[in-house]
Automatic annotation (TrEMBL):
Pathway(s) annotated for this protein in UniProt: Amino-acid biosynthesis; L-histidine biosynthesis; L-histidine from 5-phospho-alpha-D-ribose 1-diphosphate: step 1/9
Domain comment as written in the entry: Lacks the C-terminal regulatory region which is replaced by HisZ.
UniProt-recorded name of the protein: ATP phosphoribosyltransferase
Subcellular locations according to the entry: Cytoplasm
PANTHER family: ATP PHOSPHORIBOSYLTRANSFERASE, ATP PHOSPHORIBOSYLTRANSFERASE ATP-PRTASE
One cellular component term from this protein's GO annotations in UniProt: cytoplasm
MF terms (GO), sorted A to Z: ATP binding; ATP phosphoribosyltransferase activity
Length: 229
């Protein structure tokens, strides 16, 4: 309780900015932020509000709410000092400016290659030299297949990848899988796992040097809460 009421040791007039993803991760992140002692202003929980930047109970900390992929970009370019992003997104951008010190143990899923059931049953991956893949993750996909000498031609989609094989866009997809129900509902099967995914606390490396006291304090608070979960 004492921890929760601790204020930030602010070393600059400028508020620190925490970028959080809207959507599914926010549902898991909100109780974690409460345990860290961060209470956003009321408009943050109002789905109809058009506001994107919010004050918190901590005078030196504001929150911005952005698309999950954009969290990494805001933090990498220093527009936000820290944020929360899945390691799927961190792997896709591979920004050297990002430091990801805490696994928050939320947003569990995996990034996998999937194919129609009938194809997977007769497929021989050792014979592939070129494949076409629909995905939201073209960089991870290219790197993954290039590592074993396969050229992956990626078609970038932003959602509903599971439709692509059935409609002749490609034969394989790379997408996130959690329960597997989206794959099953579209008659696809997982062929291989590329990476296990959870969400991480990410910090801009330059900001971590220039505002180390405040940022280390926040990182430690998130670490304590994640470790206690
Ligand atoms: N089915 C899932 N189960 C658990 N975690 C998931 C799942 N799908 C995605 N995630 C995690 O949540 C993050 C955001 O998911 P997604 O890209 O689907 O965004 P969203 O919640 O639909 O919001 P938006 O597309 O508007 O940013 C992903 O980067 C991943 O880390
Ligand atoms: O294995 P499952 O439990 O079915 O979860 C996997 C689905 O979850 C994610 O989609 P999301 O619901 O976020 O939709 P979107 O990618 O179309 O935004 C992912 O892209 C899969 O489609």
């Amino acid at each position: 309780m004492e921890d929760k009421q601790r204020s930030l040791s602010v070393t600059s007039n400028e508020a620190l900015i925490l970028a959080v993803p809207k959507g599914r991760i926010l549902k898991e992140l909100s109780p974690l932020m409460t345990r860290v002692g961060i209470e956003p202003e009321a408009a943050f929980s109002d789905d109809n509000a058009r506001q994107l930047r919010f004050k918190t109970n901590l005078p030196g900390l504001d929150i911005i709410r952005v698309r999950s992929f954009d969290v990494a970009t805001f933090v990498a370019f220093g527009a936000a000092h820290l944020g929360v992003a899945g390691n799927d997104i961190l792997m896709e951008f591979d920004y050297p400016e990002l430091y990801a010190p805490v696994d928050l143990d939320i947003g569990h899923c995996r990034l996998s290659v999937a194919a129609p059931r009938h194809l997977a049953e007769s497929d021989d991956p050792s014979r592939w030299s070129h494949i076409r893949v629909a995905t939201k993750y073209p960089e991870i996909t290219r790197r993954h297949f290039a590592a074993r000498g396969v050229q992956a031609e990626c078609i970038k989609l932003n959602g509903a990848m599971e439709l692509a094989p059935g409609l002749g866009l490609c034969r394989r997809i790379v997408d996130l899988v959690s329960t597997g129900s989206t794959l099953r509902a579209n008659d696809l099967v997982e062929v291989e796992t590329i990476a296990e995914v959870t969400s991480r606390l990410v910090v801009n490396r330059a900001a971590f040097k220039t505002r180390s006291e405040e940022l280390s304090d926040l990182v430690e608070r998130f670490r304590e809460v994640a470790d206690a979960a």
